[in-house]
Structures are given as C-alpha cells and as structure tokens.
Specification:
The complex is a heterodimer of chains A (226) and B (453). With 226 residues, chain A is of the alpha/beta class. Chain A contains seven helices and ten strands. Classes of the chains: A alpha/beta (226), B mainly alpha (453). Chain B: This is FtsX-like permease family protein.
Chain lengths: 226, 453
C-alpha cells in the first residue's frame, strides 16, 4: 500500500510538556488506522500534527508529495478543507445551524452553491441514517445523531483521509458502534483512509492497523486482515 | 458555608479572586472602569440639579443658566445608559468559567444563596472601587476645569460632599443588580450548570412603541396649546420612541436575520444570520444603545437647522452659546457611541472565548479564519442596520413633523441627510470595532480548544 500520509521524527511540546517525541508513522491510502493509548499519551497531538492542525516542533509530515509542516496556515487550511475530513468527540457542530446546514456550510466554503450544498447534505444525512435530523439543531439531537451529522460533514466533500478524534468517546456502546460502523463502511466503500484516535480497545479492533502512543512515543503494529 | 455567613464568604471570595484566570483578571478593571464612569456622570447630573442661580456667560450656558441645567443633568444621566449596558456586558465575560467554579462550590457544600452572594460580593468590590475612583475623578476634574476656565464663583458650582455617598450607593447597587441579572437564567447545581429554558423569540408587539412614540411627538408638536399640552406630549413621544428603539431592537434584528438567512448565498452570511436568529437578544443589548445614539444625533439635526436658519435671518454668525451646546451634544453622542461599541467588543470576545469550540472545529475542518472574520462582520451589519435605520427614521419623522407646521423641503433634505449620516457612522463604527475585536478569533480557533473538557 502506497503511503498517503507519512510523519517522520515528529516532536511537539506544549510549554515544558513534551506531548510527542520523535514519532514516525505512515498511513496508506484507504487504510483504517487506530491511534490508541492512555489519556494524555499524545494521541490527539499526533492526529493534529498529521491533519495539519498543529505544526510539529521537529520532524516532517508528508501528504503525498506535499510537505505539510512547511505549508503556511492558509495552505494547510485549504488542504484540510479539500483533502481531509475531521470528526471530533463532541461533534463540533455549529449550534445555531440545522444538521443539514452544518453539513452544507463546509461545502459552500468549498465553492458549491447553497442549493447544491443543501442537496448534497440531505443525501449524506439520508445515507448515514440521519435524514430525519436535517431540520433539527444540534441541541435537539441525541449524542449519536450529533456524531452521525459530524461524520456526514467530514465525508460530504469526498476527502482522502478522515481524522476521527475519539468519535465514540461520548456515546454508549450501542450508539458508538453504530456511528463507527457508518463511518468505516462509507470510508471503506470510497477508499478513504481513516485515522481513528481512541483509548478503547474495542474501537481499535475495527482498524486494519494500530499505532500505540505511550508517553509521546508512537509504536506501529503490523497490518492485520479484518 | 451558610451557617458561617459572611465570616466564611469573604475569605472564599478572596480565594476565588486570587485563583482567577487571566480573562477574569482583565474583566475586573472593566467593571471598575464602568462603575467609575457611571459615578462620574451621575455625580455630574446631581451636581447640575444642585446648582442655584445664574452666572452670565456665553460659552457655558448649559451649566451656568438655571433653566438649562435640568436638560444638562438629563443629558449627563442619559450617558449612564450606555455605561450600564457596558457594565452588563462586562459582567458576562468569563461567565461560563465562573458558573463551573460555582458548581464546584455547590459540590463543596455552598447553598444557592451562597453562590449568589459570592457573585454579589465581587460586584460590591468592583462597584465600590469604581464609584470611589469616579467620585474622586469628578471632584478633581471639576476643580481643574474651574481653575483652567478662571471661574471665580466656585462655591456655586462645586459639588457638595453630601450627595457623593448616595451616588456611590446607587452605582454599587446597580453593579449588584447587573451581576445578579447576568446569572438569573442559570441554575448552578452541585453536579452541573444548566440554563433555564430559552426565552421565546422577541414578539412583534415589542415594536409598537416605536410608531406610537412618533405619533405622540407629531401630535404634541402640532397641538395649539404648546406649553401645557404640546411640549409634555412631544417629550413623552420622544421618550416612547427611545424606549421603542431599545425594546424593539431584538425583534428588528430577528426579522433582519431571518431575511438574511433566507436569501444567504454565502456560508459567511448564513452563519451570521443563523447565529443572530438563535439569540437576537444578545446583539440587541448593544445595538439598542447604538440605535439610541443614532436617534439622538438625528434629533439634534432639527435644533441645528433652527440655529442655522436664525443665523441666516440675522445675517450674523452662529451664536457661541449654540456652538458650545451643539458641540457638547456631539461630544456626548460620540462618547455614548464609543461606550456602546466597546460593549460590542466585550460581547464578541465573550461569545468567541466561551462558546468558541464550534469555531475551533470549523477552523480545523478547513474554514479559513478570514471567512470567520467576515462572518463576524456580517453579523454586526445584519444586526446594526435595521436598528439604526429604524431609530433614524422614527426620530427624523417625529422631530420634523412635530416641530414644523409648514412643509419645508430644505428641512426634509437636512433631516434625511443627517439620518443617513448617523446610520452610516453608527454601522461603520460597529463594523470597525468588529474588525478590531476579530483578533479574538485567532484564539477562539486555536487547536487547544478542540480538546474535550
């Protein structure tokens, strides 16, 4: 599998806390990789560095032929908007927008007209079993529904990589499995790579491969066939 | 904690003050500053009402002429309105962090009454400090002004000592009431902070005072018995119009946001419109004061028209008295506008810093910060435009139709130009302030806000 994302020797510190130390990982196209480890180990920091949200203090992050850590903020923002999708533990939806509008707005920022973005948003919500949520605001949705909308938002523009930071962390096991199932089914069907941060072994078991982060040090496990 | 009362409450308040975060520490000078300004203007108003007799002078007629002092006092007292609006906004800064802290205190055994008292203690401290600074500032400023202007009759004009404690008490009470109002819709339990069910959208009926005020102004201005009926009616109409601007601002903003949301073609406009639609009251608190400034500026145009017409008839320049009076009015309006837009900065900083996690998520998902800045600017324009336009229109119609019996195209053009100028200045000021306060967006969109609490 050709590496789509590659980080080598990445370190990141927040003040005197070294969150990530000399981490080297690769993510292949269409691969589902779990980044696991205990709380505070540096999992989210690694994800943020891979997604170009954070710039590492040392090391390199490559997305295809592009060196992410050398891009300026505008270029990284553009890349995130076009090539990446992101799902957060808390959904990260805009509370004032309806579910459909939450999915449509990033598409509009990508240049789609409002009508076309709204149509695409409705289709994605239907596909993820959240069609009924379209006119509702995040405050009127259950945790599972919020995450389905967040997944729709992350996938709607056809990204090559989806970064999911504890996407089921705030859900019960049934809702969590449903959300994860939807995300992975859609991603695998479209050949989208998924980087899945979790501290839950059951969630990590869904992945093709696992990267364990402990005290800021990342160790890759070999790929498994699932 | 309840049993021990203030013996425990005060040390706890001191401990909380020591452990305050940086935004909270920045909030305190703002509260003290607002209290100081409110004291300064209230003391000025009281001072005006206590001066007796008249000294003949051309340039300080608003203070030295007995008949004009109540109006000057009213003007000074009105300046307290934007200051109180700012105080209210400042009280909301870091509200979420304080609520979480109070929930922790409830878990530690504090009763709901205790946590309310803790909020009041902070307001009393900031209010008292500000009121003392404001009082000393007023006395010092008055002494310096009288020395610079070579006023010999200082005993007549100097503020007596006895009203100062009263004004201080009023300002401290206002600070406490404002502090309690901020958290009136919040229930702090030992396990969490919950907000009471959101209030319904502002009703259309809140707009009724605006046309009613204009109608009363017109009727008052056209009444034959000017002194007994006309003038009181005209002032009543003016007051109703002003209250109508403040009361109807929320509904005007809601209508404007709905319209903008329906026709939005860009994501920035859609985000801005939906945010205002969800909570039009938050924006209306600031925009109402901006609208009142527009009303004041538009209304004063009629007086200026009169002065200019008189000067043309007399073939003389404009009297110094009028120049000073009009200049003072403009200074007052400018100050009110500055305070109102400062409240807007505080409001935006609060929104971004406390509820900015979705902003950070949008930025992480690839929405440029520049687009989020444009969203903030459009939110300001969508909110400010209808309030300022309604305030200007109502005042222009009420003043012109009320004070002039014969149709005058010159006056109509003058009023229209002034109304447009005031609306443009107000919207431009609010927009400029939004652009300045957009620097908070960088912090709101920072990745560290993406971590779950």
């Amino acid at each position: 599998m050709s590496p789509l994302l590659r980080a080598s020797g990445v370190s990141k510190a927040f003040g005197r806390t070294r969150a990530l130390r000399d981490a080297s990982v690769t993510i292949g196209a269409g691969e589902v990789v779990a980044v696991s480890g205990p709380s505070g180990a540096g999992k989210s920091t690694l994800l943020h560095c891979l997604a170009g949200i954070l710039v590492p203090d040392a090391g390199e992050v490559h997305y295809g032929a592009t060196r992410l850590d050398e891009l300026d903020e505008n270029a990284r923002t553009r890349l995130r908007r076009e090539a990446f999708g992101i799902v957060f533990q808390f959904g990260g939806l805009v509370p004032e927008l309806t579910a459909a509008e939450n999915v449509a707005v990033p598409l509009m920022f990508g240049g789609l007209s409002r009508a076309k973005a709204a149509e695409a948003a409705r289709e994605w919500l239907e596909r993820l079993g959240a069609g009924d949520c379209a006119p509702l605001r995040p405050g009127e949705l259950s945790g599972g529904q919020v995450q389905r909308v967040a997944v729709a938002r992350a996938l709607a523009h056809g990204p090559e990589v989806v970064f999911a930071d504890e996407p089921t962390g705030a859900l019960d096991s049934v809702a969590g499995e449903e959300v994860l199932g939807s995300l992975l089914a859609e991603a695998r069907g479209r050949g989208t790579a998924v980087v899945l941060v979790t501290h839950d072994n059951r969630v990590a078991a869904y992945a093709d491969r696992e990267i364990v982060v402990r005290d800021g040090v990342a160790a890759e496990s070999p790929a498994v066939t699932r | 904690m309840t049993g021990s009362g203030f013996r425990v409450l005060l040390p706890v308040a001191a401990m909380l003050a020591r452990g305050a975060s940086r935004p909270e520490r920045r909030r305190r000078p703002l509260l003290v500053g607002c209290s100081a300004l409110a004291t300064f203007f209230l003391l000025g108003a009281v001072n005006q009402l206590l001066i007796r007799g008249t000294t003949v002078t051309q340039w300080a007629g608003l203070v030295s002429e007995e008949d004009l002092r109540p109006g000057t006092a009213l003007g000074l007292a009105l300046l307290v309105v934007p200051v109180l609006a700012l105080l209210h906004q400042a009280g909301r800064v870091t509200q979420a962090a304080r609520e979480r802290r109070l929930a922790a205190l409830r878990l530690a055994g504090a009763t709901p009454g205790d946590v309310r008292l803790l909020g009041a203690v902070e307001a009393v401290r900031a209010g008292t400090a500000g009121a003392v600074i404001g009082s000393l500032g007023y006395v010092a400023a008055q002494r310096i002004a009288m020395a610079v202007l070579h006023v010999h009759d200082t005993g007549r004009y100097a503020v007596p000592l006895w009203p100062i404690p009263l004004v201080v008490a009023v300002v401290v009470a206002a600070a406490v009431v404002t502090s309690l109002r901020v958290s009136r819709r919040v229930v702090v339990s030992p396990v969490r902070v919950t907000r009471r069910a959101s209030r319904p959208a502002p009703a259309a009926v809140t707009l009724i005072l605006l046309p009613l005020g204009v109608l009363v102004m017109v009727v008052g201005g056209q009444t034959q018995d000017v002194d007994k009926v006309g003038v009181p009616l005209f002032y009543l109409g003016g007051a109703l119009t002003a209250v109508g601007v403040a009361a109807g601002a929320g509904r005007l903003i809601l209508a404007s946001a709905r319209l903008a949301g329906r026709w939005a073609r860009t994501p920035e406009t859609l985000l801005a419109a939906r945010a205002l639609e969800a909570d039009p009251r938050a924006a209306s608190r600031t925009m109402a004061v901006v609208g009142l400034v527009v009303a004041g500026g538009t209304g004063s145009a009629v007086i200026e028209w009169d002065v200019l017409q008189q000067a043309a008839v007399d073939h003389a320049g404009v009297d110094l008295f009028w120049l000073v009076s009009i200049g003072s009015t403009w200074l007052g309006l400018l100050f009110a506008l500055l305070v109102a837009v400062t409240a807007l900065v505080v409001h935006q900083a609060e929104v971004l810093l406390e509820d900015g996690r979705s902003t950070a998520a949008l930025a992480a998902a690839g929405v440029p910060v520049a687009a989020l800045r444009r969203t903030a600017l459009r939110r300001t324009i969508i909110a400010a435009t209808p309030v300022c336009a309604a305030a200007a229109l109502a005042t222009a119609v009420g003043m012109a139709a009320g004070l002039y019996t014969s149709a005058s195209w010159g006056l109509a053009a003058w009023m229209a130009a002034r109304a447009l100028l005031m609306v443009a200045v107000a919207i431009a000021s609010a927009s400029a302030v939004t652009l300045v306060s957009n620097r908070f967006l960088t912090r709101a969109a920072a990745p560290d806000r993406l971590r779950a609490e």
